[in-house]
Amino acid sequence: MDDAMAEAATTPRCELEVRKEAGATVLVLVGRLDTPRAAELWPRLMKEAAGGPVVLDLARLEAIDTTGATLVLSAEAAGHGSTIRGAGPGVSEVLDRVRQARDAPRPKPERSLPLLARLGRSVWYGGQALVDSIAFLGELTIILLGTLLRPWRLRIGEVLRHLDEAGTRAFPLTVLLGFLLGVILAFQSAIPLRRFGAEIFVPNLVGISLLRELGPLMAGVILAGRTGSAYAAELGTMSVNEEVAALRVMGIDPMALLVLPRVLAGVLVMPVLSLLLTLAGLSGMALIMNLFGFPLTTVLQQLSQWLTLSDLLGGLVKACFFGLAIAAIGCRAGLGAGRGPRAVGDAATAAVVGGIVSIILLDGVFAVAYERLGL
Q1: Which of 23, 142, 173, 230 has the fewest CB atoms below 10 angstroms from its CB?
Q2: CA–CA separation, 333 and 264 (whole Å)
């Protein structure tokens, strides 16, 4: 290797000589035609070759790389009827390789499938994803029932850690978002109601909206954005690094070790976040009502008259199911992450989008169910 490098270093760089032989233009390449020198000679050689048929004399060419070979073949093609002569064995071998690569048949572009075929493929993949999701929920249910029968198998430390990450660290954002939401709802509701002298009903409107709908829904968005994506990123990284497969090889169930603590933390923390956001929203509403001239006692009286325990419990029950859906979707996206540098990012994106869509669908289901039950 050292001898080859030394020989290449001592070989003179390629020079181009142009001469006439029997009325024909002969382009003589002398020395070593490597990538840097080919870049320098490219414009001149192509200009000479484009003037008409030429003869490329490579007898004095001592070394060539693939870039130099590309230059020689391009010059041959630029001058229609040009020829190459005098190439040594090593130079000829490189030229043949580059020529074969150039003339190799290119793969035909994939034809787009017709509409019906694309629809069928989408349905097939969607059905597979649905079956995988049902299998994941079934496995999670079995693990949960087994843990209820043998509660000592649950890792309490892991549950507490995820409760801290998903709940305690989300309190500042939850309070801020809830307070701003209450301020905006109260202000926007008071403006049209003022025309009819009905500002006193703003606490009723905002209180019911926060307790039954917006509190659980906005807390679910926070949980999906913070925790659902974090679950998917953590488990997706473990899947890409083959850590999940290693756990299975060691006989450890990833569902019990990784998924169950996260799902329990999501279910337990969502009612707390929902209640905290609702209280912060009511505080923001009370501030706006105070600015409009309504004292705190009046606001509290309106809330106590119109809000019921069923409103509070209905929102907390929805919050529990929202937390279950967000945590399960985040874990499912992480464990199902593919391979490659984009796998973790795709899993986190799927977790956030799936979590938000799921809580909106669940909110619609609960709205219909509560209406049918008269709640």
Answers
A1: 23
A2: 17
CA separation for the pair 186, 285 (Å, rounded): 5
Sign of CA dihedral 219, 220, 225, 231: positive
Pairing of strands 24-33, 54-57: parallel
Are 270 and 219 contacting, i.e. CB atoms less than 8 angstroms apart?
A: yes
Residue 61, token pair as written in the block: 């060419």
What CATH class has 2-103? alpha beta
Judged on CB neighbours under 10 Å (0-12, 13-18, 19+), 165 is: middle
Distance of CA 109 to the CA centre of its chain: 27
Encoded amino acid at 352, one letter? V
Q: At residue 24, does pLDDT exceed 90?
A: no
Give the helix ranges, DSSP H, for the chain. 2-10, 35-50, 66-78, 89-103, 115-149, 156-166, 171-194, 202-209, 215-223, 229-240, 243-249, 254, 260-291, 296-306, 309-335, 343-373
A 10 A CB-CB count for 206 gives 31
Task: Give start-end residues of each CATH 3.30.750.24 domain in the chain.
Answer: 2-103
Predicted TM-score (pTM) of the model is: 0.65
For the segment 204-240, what is each residue's pLDDT rounded down to a tens digit? 888 888 988 888 999 999 999 888 888 888 888 888 8
Tokens describing residue 319: 């919050």
Under 8 Å between Cβ of 329 and 362: no
